[in-house]
Amino acid sequence: MKADDFKLFLDSGSVYVQTRCKEGHQPVVVINMLRFKALKQPHSELARFAYFFFDQIVSTMMVPGHIENWFVIIDFKGLGVTDLPINELKGFVAALQRNFRGRMCRMIVANTPALIRGAWAIIYGWLDKFVQQKISVTADPAKVLSEYIHENDLEETYGGKAPVRTSFWPI
């Protein structure tokens, strides 16, 4: 697989690497769900793209024994509860779990609708402490993200000072 095979995905900004964390230097991967939904791609293509994209991160941004996982921001800005591309996201995440299990150090689910935050508050109590520490669901990601990403590297969209990305590839 090569980048040309995934030009639609790579140019869309649906999934991209924004920066690195300030401690640990993990790559910060943004999944923009509004753009992701607009792609309207079959599960098989989403899975192929997930394999390609995250394999590129492993081969170009990881340092064995030092940097071995990533930080994920899933941004739901612009989507209501009925707009959420749940099936597409499930297929994408399933592909990641099959091939990159244990690579996520932290996930921030940003700009979530109130109904999702309410459901998360219930589900959160069912999870073990290890998983609870890895996932945050928030309507206002700026405060949470500033703990992990330096403000000069964090996009303005998320409360930082870095310009919003318009070019998403290469990593």
Give an overview of the whole structure:
The chain is α/β, with parallel strands linked by helices. The protein contains seven helices and five strands; from the N terminus they run αββααβαβααβα. The chain has helices spanning 7-12, 33-39, 43-61, 86-100, 114-124, 129-134, 141-146; strands spanning 15-20, 27-32, 70-75, 104-110, 135-137. Strands 1-2-3-4-5 form a five-stranded mixed sheet. The protein starts with 6 loop residues before the first helix and ends in a 25-residue tail after the last helix. The mean pLDDT is 90.
In summary, what is this structure?
The chain is an alpha/beta fold. The chain is 41% helix and 16% strand.
Looking at this protein, list some descriptive labels.
171 residues, alpha/beta, 5-stranded mixed sheet, 7 helices, 5 strands, 41% helix, globular
